[in-house]
C-alpha cells in the first residue's frame, strides 16, 4: 500500500503565558517581564502512516491532541518539531461551513467556498448545480444564508465538502449532523468516497462512525498514541479509557448518589447499542418502530445484585424517560455476582419519542433504593428518531371515546 | 498547489510524498490567492452598494459632508483658502484620497481577528484578509474619484496631460496603505491597543498632511519636519499634477530631491516592516487568536 500521509516524531508545544500580555501598554510597563510560560504538550513525538485510500479514524478524549494534529496536518498550526509528508492534494479545511458569508446567497457562497477549497472560479460555478442537487436546496438558491435553518446550512456545507476534489480530506466531527435521512445520504457519500480511493482522516468522538467507516483508527491520549489498529478494538479501548476516568469522580448531579473512590470498579458498562426488531444494530429509529436497547456490563468485584437503569434525554439535555431493572427481582440472577461475570441487558421498547437526537445514560445502582451509584455513564450511546409527526416530546397510545350530542334545543 | 494544478501535473504527484511546510501568509497557491482576493473584495464591495438602498450615496456622502464643513470653516471663517488657487476642489480631492487611507487601514486593523473562524479552521492565505480590505476600499475610491473629477471640471479646472499621472499617485498611496494594513492587522492579533493608537495616529496624520492647507503656507521652520511624513510629498505632487499646475510640487517644496530623502526612507521602512511583521506573524496567527 502506498503512503498518503507520513507523520514522523510530530511534536507540538504551546507556550501558555501565566498572564497574557495583551496590550502594548503592559509590554511597555514590563519590558523584560517574560511573564513565565507553561509548556503545554499537545502532541509528543507522534509517528504514524496513513495509506492511500484509507479511511483513518482519530479518536481521543478532549485535550488529547487530536484537533491539534488535524490543524497541523492542514497547515493551520505550525509544528514545533517533527516532519509531515503528504502525497496528493489536501482539502484546506477541517470543519464544515467555515467561511460561509451569511449575507450572500447560497449560489454566491458555493462559488466563494469552492475557491477557498482550491477550485478555480469557473470550476466552482460549474459545481453549483450538483451542490444544490445533493443538498436539496434548489428552492432556496436566492435566499441569503442568514435566512437558512441550521439544518439547511449543514446540508449545504456537507455537499460543498463532497465537491472538494482533493486526494486527502481531513474531517472533524461531521457525522453528528442533519436529520436521519440526510445522515443516510452522508453515509452513502462516505462509502462512495472510500470506494473512489480518497484518503480520509476522520476525527470524532463517535465510536459508531469509527467502527462503521474506518479501516484503521488511532487513539490519542495526552498527546501520545495510546493505541493504533483495528477500529473496534480502538473504540473499546476508548470507552475503557473514558470509564477509568469516570470512576473516582463525583457525579455531577451531586444528589444522594455517590461513587466509591477506591479499588477497581465494581461493575461497569463495556458496550451499549440499539437493535431494530429484526436484530440489526442501528442508530436511527423510525417513529412507532419497535427497537431494543442492549448493554453489556462487566463485574469488576464481587457484588450483590445491582439495579441497572437507563435514562433517555433529548438534545436539550432534558431527561425524557427512564427504565431499569432491579436484578434482585430476578430469580435467574445469582445472589452475588463474581468478578469477571458479564451482564447482558436487553430492553424491548416501542419508540414514542418525537423526531430528534437522543442520548442514553447508563446508571448502575447498588440497589433499587438508588441511594448509591456504582457507575454512571452519560452519553453511553445516542440515536436519532425520524419520520414521525409527534409535536410534543413523547406521544402515547390511548383509547379515545367520542360521542356527538345534538345540542339541546333552545 | 491547488486541486486542479495538481491534477494536471499527473499521477506522479499523487503518490510522491512531499513535505508539508506549515502555515504561511500566501499558502495554498498563487492562483487561489488572487481568486480569493478578487472574489472577497468584489462581494464586499457589492454588499455595500447593493445591500443598502442608498449604498453609493453613503459612500460619497461622507467625504462630501466632511468637505462641506471644512470648506465652510477654512474659506469663510479662517480664510485659509483665500489666495490658494482652486482651494475647494483641492480640499475635496485631498479628503477623498485621505478617506481611502483612513477607512482602509481602520478596517484592516481588526480584519484578521474578525475572520477568526476562517483563520483557525481553514488553511486560508492570511494575507488575503487585509489585502481584500484595501482592495474593497480602492473600488470605493475609484468610484468616488469619478465624482471628484466631475467637480473639478465643473469648477473650471482645465484638464492637463499631467492628469494621466494620477495612477502614480494612487499607486504610491495604495502601496503605503497595504503596508500599513499588513503591519496593523498582524500586530493587532497580539496587541489589542493597536487600534486605539492607530485611531489617534491617523488623526495626527490628517493634520500633518497638506490636506487642509497647501504646503507653502507652512512656516519654513516646520516645513522640513512636515515633509518627513511620506504622505506630504505625495499629496503635494497630486495637487501640482491634478488641481493647480502652478503649485510647487513635491521636489521644489522640499527644496530639492535631498529634502525628500527622509520621507522616502520612512515610506520604504513602513513597507518593509509591514511585509516582515506580517510574514513573521502569519504562521502564528491561528494560535495567538
Can you give a write-up of this model?
Chain A has about 400 residues and is of the alpha+beta class. Chain A has helices at about 25-30, 65-75, 105-115, 120-125, 130-135, 150-165, 180-195, 205-215, 230-245, and strands at about 5-15, 35-50, 55-60, 80-85, 170, 200-205, 215-220, 225-230, 265-275, 280, 285, 290-300, 305, 305-315, 320-325, 335, 340-350, 355-365, 375-385. Chain A folds into 2 domains: about 5-235, P-loop containing nucleotide triphosphate hydrolases (Rossmann fold, 3-Layer(aba) Sandwich); about 255-385, Coagulation Factor XIII, Chain A, domain 1 (Distorted Sandwich), CATH 2.70.50. Chain A is built from 9 helices and 19 strands. In chain A, strand 14 and strand 15 form a beta hairpin. The longest helix of chain A has 16 residues, at about 180-195. The termini of chain A are far apart. The model of chain A is unreliable at about 245-265 (pLDDT under 50). Chain B has helices at about 5-10, 10-15, 30-50, 55-75, 85-110, 110-115, 115-120, 130-155, 165-190, 195-210, 220-225, 230-245, 250-255, 260-280, 285-289; one strand at about 20. The two termini of chain B are about 25 Å apart. Chain B has a domain at about 30-210. In chain B, helix 5 packs antiparallel against helix 8 (about 130-155), helix 5 (about 85-110) runs parallel beside helix 9 (about 165-190) and helix 9 (about 165-190) packs across helix 14 (about 260-280). At the A-B interface, strand 1, helix 1, helix 2, strand 4 and helix 3 of A face helix 1, helix 2, strand 1, helix 3 and helix 7 of B. Strand 4 of chain A pairs antiparallel with strand 1 of chain B.
Sum up the structure in keywords.
heterodimer, A: 410 residues, alpha+beta, Rossmann fold, Coagulation Factor XIII, Chain A, domain 1, 2 domains, five-stranded mixed sheet, B: 289 residues, globular, disordered N terminus
Amino acid at each position: 500500500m502506498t503512503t498518503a500521509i507520513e507523520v514522523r516524531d510530530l511534536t507540538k508545544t504551546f507556550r501558555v503565558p501565566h498572564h497574557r500580555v495583551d496590550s502594548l501598554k503592559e509590554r511597555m510597563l514590563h519590558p523584560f517581564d517574560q511573564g513565565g510560560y507553561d509548556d503545554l504538550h499537545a502532541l509528543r513525538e507522534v509517528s504514524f502512516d496513513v495509506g492511500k485510500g484509507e479511511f483513518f479514524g482519530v479518536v481521543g478524549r478532549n485535550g488529547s491532541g487530536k484537533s491539534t494534529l488535524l490543524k497541523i496536518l492542514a497547515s493551520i498550526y505550525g509544528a514545533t518539531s517533527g516532519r509531515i509528508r503528504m502525497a496528493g492534494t489536501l482539502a484546506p479545511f477541517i470543519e464544515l461551513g467555515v467561511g460561509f458569508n451569511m449575507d450572500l446567497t447560497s449560489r454566491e457562497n458555493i462559488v466563494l467556498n469552492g475557491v477557498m477549497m482550491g477550485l478555480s472560479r469557473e470550476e466552482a460555478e460549474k459545481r453549483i448545480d450538483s451542490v444544490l442537487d445533493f443538498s436539496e436546496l434548489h428552492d432556496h438558491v436566492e435566499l441569503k444564508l442568514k435566512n437558512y435553518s441550521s439544518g439547511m446550512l449543514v446540508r449545504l456545507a456537507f455537499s460543498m465538502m463532497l465537491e472538494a476534489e482533493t486526494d486527502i480530506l481531513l474531517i472533524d466531527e461531521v457525522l453528528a449532523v442533519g436529520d436521519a435521512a440526510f445522515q443516510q445520504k452522508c453515509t452513502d457519500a462516505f462509502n462512495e468516497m472510500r470506494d473512489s480511493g480518497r484518503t480520509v482522516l476522520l476525527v470524532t468522538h463517535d465510536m459508531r462512525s469509527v467502527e462503521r467507516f474506518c479501516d484503521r483508527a488511532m487513539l490519542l491520549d495526552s498527546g501520545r498514541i495510546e493505541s493504533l489498529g483495528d477500529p473496534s478494538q480502538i473504540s473499546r479501548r476508548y470507552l475503557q479509557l473514558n470509564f477509568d476516568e469516570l470512576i473516582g469522580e463525583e457525579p455531577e448531579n451531586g444528589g444522594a448518589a455517590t461513587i466509591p473512590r477506591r479499588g477497581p470498579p465494581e461493575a461497569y458498562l463495556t458496550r451499549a447499542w440499539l437493535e431494530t426488531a429484526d436484530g440489526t444494530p442501528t442508530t436511527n429509529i423510525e417513529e412507532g418502530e419497535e427497537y431494543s436497547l442492549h448493554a453489556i456490563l462487566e463485574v469488576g468485584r464481587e457484588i450483590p445484585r445491582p439495579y441497572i437503569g437507563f435514562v433517555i434525554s433529548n438534545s436539550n439535555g432534558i431527561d425524557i424517560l427512564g427504565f431499569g431493572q432491579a436484578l434482585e427481582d430476578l430469580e435467574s440472577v445469582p445472589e452475588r455476582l463474581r468478578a469477571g461475570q458479564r451482564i447482558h441487558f436487553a430492553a424491548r421498547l416501542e419508540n414514542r419519542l418525537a423526531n430528534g437526537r437522543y442520548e442514553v445514560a447508563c446508571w448502575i445502582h447498588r440497589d433499587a433504593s438508588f441511594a448509591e451509584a456504582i457507575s454512571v455513564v452519560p452519553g453511553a450511546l445516542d440515536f436519532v428518531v425520524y419520520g414521525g409527526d409527534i409535536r410534543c416530546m413523547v406521544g402515547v397510545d390511548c383509547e379515545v371515546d367520542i360521542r356527538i350530542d345534538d345540542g339541546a334545543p333552545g | 498547489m491547488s486541486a486542479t494544478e495538481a491534477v494536471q501535473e499527473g499521477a506522479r504527484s499523487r503518490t510522491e510524498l512531499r513535505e508539508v511546510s506549515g502555515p504561511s501568509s500566501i499558502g495554498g497557491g498563487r492562483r487561489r490567492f488572487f481568486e480569493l482576493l478578487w472574489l472577497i473584495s468584489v462581494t464586499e464591495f457589492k454588499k455595500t452598494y447593493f445591500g443598502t438602498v442608498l449604498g453609493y450615496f453613503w459612500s460619497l456622502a461622507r467625504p462630501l459632508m466632511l468637505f462641506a464643513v471644512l470648506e465652510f470653516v477654512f474659506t469663510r471663517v479662517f480664510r485659509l483658502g483665500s489666495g490658494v488657487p482652486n482651494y475647494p476642489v483641492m480640499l475635496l480631492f485631498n479628503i477623498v484620497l485621505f478617506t481611502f487611507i483612513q477607512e482602509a487601514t481602520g478596517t484592516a486593523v481588526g480584519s484578521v481577528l474578525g475572520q477568526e473562524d476562517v483563520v483557525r479552521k481553514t488553511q486560508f492565505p492570511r494575507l488575503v484578509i487585509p489585502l481584500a480590505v484595501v482592495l474593497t476600499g480602492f473600488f470605493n475610491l475609484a468610484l468616488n474619484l469619478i465624482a471628484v473629477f466631475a467637480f473639478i471640471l465643473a469648477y473650471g479646472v482645465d484638464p492637463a496631460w499631467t492628469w494621466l499621472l494620477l495612477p502614480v499617485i494612487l499607486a504610491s498611496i495604495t502601496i503605503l496603505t497595504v503596508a500599513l494594513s499588513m503591519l496593523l492587522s498582524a500586530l493587532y492579533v497580539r496587541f489589542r491597543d493597536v487600534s486605539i493608537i492607530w485611531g489617534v495616529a491617523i488623526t495626527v496624520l490628517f493634520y500633518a498632511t497638506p490636506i487642509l492647507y497647501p504646503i507653502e503656507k507652512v512656516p519654513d521652520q516646520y516645513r522640513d519636519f512636515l515633509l518627513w511624513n511620506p504622505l506630504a510629498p505625495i499629496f503635494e505632487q497630486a495637487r501640482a499634477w491634478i488641481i493647480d499646475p502652478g503649485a510647487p510640487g513635491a521636489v521644489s517644496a522640499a527644496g530639492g530631491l535631498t529634502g525628500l530623502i527622509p520621507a522616502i526612507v520612512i515610506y520604504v521602512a513602513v513597507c518593509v516592516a509591514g511585509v516582515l511583521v506580517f510574514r513573521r506573524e502569519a504562521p502564528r496567527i491561528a494560535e495567538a487568536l
